[in-house]
Design brief:
- With 306 residues, the protein is of the alpha+beta class.
- The chain has a single domain, classed as Roll (Lipovitellin-phosvitin complex, beta-sheet shell regions).
- 20% of the residues lie in helices and 52% in strands.
- The chain contains five helices and 15 strands.
- Strands 2, 3, 4, 5, 6, 7, 9, 10, 11, 12, 13, 14 and 15 form a 13-stranded antiparallel sheet that branches. A two-stranded antiparallel ribbon has the order 1-8.
- The chain is globular, with a radius of gyration of 23 Å.
Length: 306
């Protein structure tokens, strides 16, 4: 009997000592609106004919996500930009554009203003993976259809670059970089899990991310991420100023995230990205024979839910 009681007592101790497990995930409410407010600071160094060319980019965007329907583990949302601002400093000068700028002569700001409060559809899983983005391209097409008299070739180039930055594939990749962070099973503190995603804007890239649940408080999950980034091999080159280009880049992303314990929505994210390699400009009339341009990119991205 004493042996039996001792065994039961030992089992109780072992049971109580087992690490508590959690299931971080999106738990959004139909009818509610959630926000992301992101600022991006990037520095790009390109080496051209042995000389370094430095470019600084600052971007800020606030986005509203209204949950229109919840079906099992799927969230349907109507999403719209609340504001967008962009500043680019390069040897060619400084370009600033802002969706709040109402000057009709500022064509770049007019583009951004055309994106504001124009809803498009996004479908997301509880683990943060984006299944579908719809209607952004219709919004962009409408913006360019209403442009004043602009050379059609120039308009096509501008539209292609705008699609690369704000199109459906770019939005999907950017949103997954923030939300596709959740494990498929329950995890304990200090447990890790791996998530593979891809993103596409000016360039296409594959990400392999290892996330760890570092802490759990009464109000949020603290999650740390280390990602390896490599540009994807694509058959179709990207376009920059009408020139075909391909990227051969790799690097790392370090992320620290606070996700609301109740809703799973990211309330704070701090991300640092460092990548480098080559930009290959392919043979074209502007640069016959093409050229290889070494480049480095460092980015700091901060996101909040307000």
């Amino acid at each position: 009997m004493k042996t039996l009681l001792s065994s039961l007592f030992l089992l109780l101790i072992l049971s109580n000592c087992q690490a508590q497990k959690y299931k971080p995930a999106l738990n959004l409410v139909k009818g509610n609106t959630y926000f992301t407010n992101s600022t991006v600071t990037s520095s790009i160094t390109q080496t051209y004919n042995g000389q370094d060319v430095n470019i600084a980019i600052d971007m800020a965007a606030k986005t509203a996500f209204n949950v229109t329907d919840v079906m099992d583990t799927i969230y349907h949302m109507q999403v719209s930009y609340v504001s967008i601002g962009l500043k680019v400093v390069s040897p060619a000068g400084t370009v600033e554009m802002n969706s709040d700028n109402k000057d009709p002569k500022d064509m770049s700001s007019t583009f951004l203003a055309g994106m504001i409060n124009k809803p498009f559809s996004v479908t997301v899983t509880r683990t943060g993976h984006v299944l579908e983005v719809k209607n952004i391209e219709n919004i962009i097409n409408a913006i360019f259809a209403n442009l004043p008299q602009v050379d059609e070739t120039q308009k096509a180039q501008m539209k292609a670059q705008f699609m690369q930055s704000f199109g459906e594939t770019a939005f999907k990749g950017n949103l997954e970089q923030t939300l596709a962070i959740y494990p498929s099973v329950k995890v304990a503190k200090n447990d890790s899990w791996v998530i593979k995603t891809s993103m596409q804007s000016v360039m296409s890239a594959n990400l392999v991310s290892t996330y760890q649940l570092q802490d759990v408080t009464d109000t949020y999950y603290q999650i740390h991420g280390d990602s390896k980034v490599s540009t994807a091999i694509t058959s179709t080159p990207a376009q920059i100023n009408g020139m075909p280009v391909k990227y051969d880049l790799s690097g790392t992303i370090v992320t620290d995230i606070k996700a609301d314990k109740k809703t799973g929505w990211v309330i704070e994210e701090k991300l640092k990205q460092d990548i480098g390699g080559n930009l290959d400009i392919l043979d074209n009339p502007k640069i016959p024979g093409g050229m290889k341009m070494p480049m480095k990119i460092h980015s700091d991205i901060n996101t909040t839910d307000h």
